[in-house]
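Form 12-C: Joint structure prediction
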Amino acid sequence: MSKGTVVLAYSGGLDTSCILVWLKEEGYDVITYLANIGQEEDFDAAKKKAESLGAKKVFIEDLRAEFVEEFIWPSVQANAVYEDRYLLGTSVARPCIARRQIQIARQEGAQYVSHGATGKGNDQIRFELTCYALYPEVKIIAPWRIPEFYNRFVGRKDLMEYAEKHGIPVPVTPKAPWSMDANLMHISYESGILENPKSHAPADLYLMTKSPEDAPNSPDVLEIEFKKGVPIKVTHVKEGKSKDTPLDIFSYLNEIGGRHGVGRIDIVENRFIGMKSRGIYETPGGTILYHAHLDIETFTMDREVRRIKQGLGVKFAEMLYNGFWYSPECEFVRHCIDKSQESVEGKVQLSVFKGQVYILGRESPKSLYNEELVSMDVQGDYDPCDASGFIKINAVRLREHHRLQGEHRSKH
Amino acid sequence: MSKGTVVLAYSGGLDTSCILVWLKEEGYDVITYLANIGQEEDFDAAKKKAESLGAKKVFIEDLRAEFVEEFIWPSVQANAVYEDRYLLGTSVARPCIARRQIQIARQEGAQYVSHGATGKGNDQIRFELTCYALYPEVKIIAPWRIPEFYNRFVGRKDLMEYAEKHGIPVPVTPKAPWSMDANLMHISYESGILENPKSHAPADLYLMTKSPEDAPNSPDVLEIEFKKGVPIKVTHVKEGKSKDTPLDIFSYLNEIGGRHGVGRIDIVENRFIGMKSRGIYETPGGTILYHAHLDIETFTMDREVRRIKQGLGVKFAEMLYNGFWYSPECEFVRHCIDKSQESVEGKVQLSVFKGQVYILGRESPKSLYNEELVSMDVQGDYDPCDASGFIKINAVRLREHHRLQGEHRSKH
Amino acid sequence: MSKGTVVLAYSGGLDTSCILVWLKEEGYDVITYLANIGQEEDFDAAKKKAESLGAKKVFIEDLRAEFVEEFIWPSVQANAVYEDRYLLGTSVARPCIARRQIQIARQEGAQYVSHGATGKGNDQIRFELTCYALYPEVKIIAPWRIPEFYNRFVGRKDLMEYAEKHGIPVPVTPKAPWSMDANLMHISYESGILENPKSHAPADLYLMTKSPEDAPNSPDVLEIEFKKGVPIKVTHVKEGKSKDTPLDIFSYLNEIGGRHGVGRIDIVENRFIGMKSRGIYETPGGTILYHAHLDIETFTMDREVRRIKQGLGVKFAEMLYNGFWYSPECEFVRHCIDKSQESVEGKVQLSVFKGQVYILGRESPKSLYNEELVSMDVQGDYDPCDASGFIKINAVRLREHHRLQGEHRSKH
Amino acid sequence: MSKGTVVLAYSGGLDTSCILVWLKEEGYDVITYLANIGQEEDFDAAKKKAESLGAKKVFIEDLRAEFVEEFIWPSVQANAVYEDRYLLGTSVARPCIARRQIQIARQEGAQYVSHGATGKGNDQIRFELTCYALYPEVKIIAPWRIPEFYNRFVGRKDLMEYAEKHGIPVPVTPKAPWSMDANLMHISYESGILENPKSHAPADLYLMTKSPEDAPNSPDVLEIEFKKGVPIKVTHVKEGKSKDTPLDIFSYLNEIGGRHGVGRIDIVENRFIGMKSRGIYETPGGTILYHAHLDIETFTMDREVRRIKQGLGVKFAEMLYNGFWYSPECEFVRHCIDKSQESVEGKVQLSVFKGQVYILGRESPKSLYNEELVSMDVQGDYDPCDASGFIKINAVRLREHHRLQGEHRSKH
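Section 2 - Result
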């Protein structure tokens, strides 16, 4: 008799294929679920593989459009960056993937979900917090945290042997000496030879972006139009080509960014679990959008609103990184950030060239930029004498502080 | 009889030359003061000019070393960035310049200081807050905020006429259709034709950096060594060349960064005075250092310390931008940031190429990175089962929230 | 010929009566405006006085209900406290008063507004920022900042003489040796003999609250019901009496709080203008509400939402204190705080006694409190083993930090 | 053969006595350790009891002085309050207790430590994070999280039976229907009948403070003198009595505060573990100090330093509550806060009466209060005209915002 039904997040690779078979061995009915979030993958082959390994049911779900609209767009609005550098391409995909997994579990009456994430990483947390948040009674099977599993499969060799024994097709090409995670937003590379933080990443690592050295010798100039803080249109200025659905816009930015080698970073970051890890990321379209959004936002948003929103964006990035997309606080912050974007509207022109994004100019019907007010040549509605009072009053505290400290400071 | 002595921050240009003469006309004794903070300038010529215009005394002060050590270095430690983009090259020079001006004023017994900053900008505030903080009784003469002055000199033409009348040498080359401010850290460009935020900056604007399009086709690889959060050595990996004094290090980074077109930005920013302005900046060495410091800091600093320090850095950048370097709060924050840098030590390798800085690797005797702990291949001192409890406890709140909201969320 | 029309915020007192006459002398038509925001005042007498002094028109406006609903309620939602102590009773009245003044100015076609606030205080800023925000073209006449005025009226004696000369009724009772400001929310006392921060406030200063020493010897127990973070009903538990409109609720809380001497504080605070000042405040109803709201909010709001909201509340209090109620950032923050209050609902029981408010208990249909989960006696849906993993993972960073520091810490 | 040595945090009560015996049963050598942090306790009896139950060694440690100086004082400097109300009396004791436990474990060569904290609370985390931070290799035995233990001892009856069987003296007085934790700083009460958040606390619950209703009918007036943010002397103004060592000062404030019923709160708080719990606390001396320190701090600290320090204090309180006293971030924050206290010096007079603390006045040689500057009667070194410019410049943003929004706002 079955122990119950598990919905397994299945990638088609060696690990999750072994998990599939192992779960069956353990007495579960297994439904596999593979999300298409823009990674390169032979989805048909994966489907057939899962079926041949005994999956009771196989779900292949194209989540690309909702991934862009419901997950990437809010991150763009937030200017979400983790620890000043990482654009969160993996983090933002996790709640999207897990949400559908939970929907399938509920719909199929499964009490269990399972995944192949390791026990040291962030992804286990991101998956599982989403699961618990959306389906509090769910039971999670994380084989890489179950001693019987991880003690049995200590290295890749053990998985290979198990695969051969159970008729699981074994990969013919040797595994790259690092692991990677790909989706529409980015590819991340980590572990293996990358674990030494000093050693340089190999030049042939990158799949999504060209090397800046090999990138075209002339820039592409784009115009991105925003409304409520999200792009609604991207136009190639010279070619006149344009895109206007979220998925098309993002894909096109990936294409242009990728061609010019935009968005590569090599960082050490702090995992939620408390350890530092080294990661290499390429986020071509996301990097372009980050720069463009930052520009139009500063152009249209009041300074002090921006300051508060900036703080909320930092918090949002932490929540996202740590797996709290579906949490009361993240919902609250998304609401606030969304509110801040009401007037973030207009067009940004930028050039993409040799790994870099250059903002060239911007315009907006909702700009708070007042050319006359700021002009050095005309006075506008501004009396320079006011600045004297402004400065004097701002100096009150400073002068008091100095006086009470005595004169010692002036000797420095 | 003299109304008293004024120490005038003198640039040698048309504006401050006219101010010099005007101040004399108004009855003041004028001492001119010109700080060398790394800008291109014929200091001897400026000296002679000031003397010929009747300056009672002329000070030309080489502040480059202290500018780097006492002002740029703390900004590097802070990762100081204003509004996510601007590295504060002008802001950071102002307290350095004004501090010496005040020292001269005190030493020369001058009750007045004067400057040629406009009435709409940030610099007037930065200069004057420094002056008031260090010399609370000082009186400030800001001609561009005095109606008799600014109504008399409405346009450049008025200044030219006044100059001719008073024997002030008139510039022979036409003025660029924008204004600029240069120092060791950066050159900024604003106003004039740049005031239209939509129009692209002219290609020939930049003086400190090559266009990325004309930059070399192969990167330079540098190794920067940090101690207590400041660079103590930079080495050109291939050439073996190295620099190890603050001024030499920074100048060399400018040279390399400039050659590769690093550090150009075009932004709209929020002035302290409440208006938005468009500025174009090139900060070659500062940009390289920003990336390198960020990297070594994340490598050596605890995650949560970093989070708090990041918040302090944002505040520091605002204070710096707004002119509050010499304020109790900025001193406090600098102290805290400095404390956070005790273990920020090690070497970063990076490549500079076509406008971009790429971190390649890092090492440190004080790293908190634990290769064994993070490894996917070995367990290290880590029990993956602990992660289950960690996740379950983190989910307590989320599950409660969901339960109390009813099941409606799962239907999304 | 008239210089134009001024709407003068008129209190009926000596200062603004002199200002009224002086403005006329200066050639303005003067409309007086007196807001009833709950202060003790003979409004009819003030009306007659203004008319007799030549006011072209006299407005007496009862703003009490909107003051409570539109200004005090959002402050309650925010738990707004300035510098950890001050409940902002004066600050919150200013935008309410100035808003109507501007409405009158627009409706009467007046280009000017005027007020009697001093040049050293916060109120001038609060009034004027509201005016400029709502009526950007308005011109403000602040006599206490106009040299011709303040040099003419150096002391109270000068005002008295001017009053006698111009038929302005002179107060017969001697002025208290401090100044005060009263409204529905509080009375503040400052200046005069209170300017010495060491000297104790006189016992007979307070008008709104009884001395705790003279307060009843038994408590009153109230139940306050909240919905969306604002009180919708207050009930006297023993007497059964209840109130359910904003104005009635707040007035009743003032009555109860006042009777028991609740809400007296003596503080030194930091003015926006940069100086420290000493203020004494009594805020009976506001203090009760502060405690009650804090309690129901913590009971119903998620921990992390609360943390973010707490930060927003601190910012809100600063904006409010500094006069930025009508600013983009304050509108943004109010929106966010309002959003956070959606589930802040339920009843708080509290006792009011001898100057203190004691929370006794609370209940809510939207509580996130789970009695079974937290119980020491039953397990609930909670596995204590999870806590081990939670702690171990939280310790990862701490152990790393210790190891890398060497063992020196254990010797402490 | 022994499994090794455990240092058990032993209270002398039923639970930890059973744990002692159970650990022996399980094959460990047990050293008991009982910290005197100011709770009422018969330490001799506890010692004898532990010895009679087979403890290999018994440590009774008087930590009161270091508890005040090294743990309470930094919390006073920080104005540490958790969730706006809780003064952290339990939290602050935990690292103090656990630090000595670890010192004993190291000194005695014990690889294990154990405690009787429950699996749902905060204390387990506070104890264990301290242990792991100071002794990374330590192994922790938390019986209430070990299924064999907690399934064996489901209720108090099981413990009683076990006690009788093993010759453990059984308490003769019935247990109070709640649990409490006492130390020098406070007593906390929770669970049992208090778990219902609506029900009022029984009047006879409190042990450290008199009921305000029964408190004296006249206040006691104290003067507290601070240096570097910590009290160095307290004087009873009328009686002339004074105390000047940390332990004496704090004990005396407890005595006075206790007599007047100061510091009682009834709150619902958010545990680190993610659930809400109801707690009742009485913190007499700590409450007096909180008010006094707040007052002297605001009097002597620059406004903007205070603002930053306030934010750090909120973070400090969270760390403290969550058990991160010994963490890099908490050490960093303590350092920063300590720095901020350099000038927090002076005397505060306050009155304690019927559950409330009233600040009466303050003085300081380092005050930033400038009586002349703030005076309404003299001008001081202040030009009121400056305020006009200050306000106008602050209004620039607001006016721009309004203009660009159109005139719709004025209609509100």
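Section 3 - Comments
The longest helix of chain C spans residues 384-405. The two ends of chain C are 83 Å apart (CA to CA).
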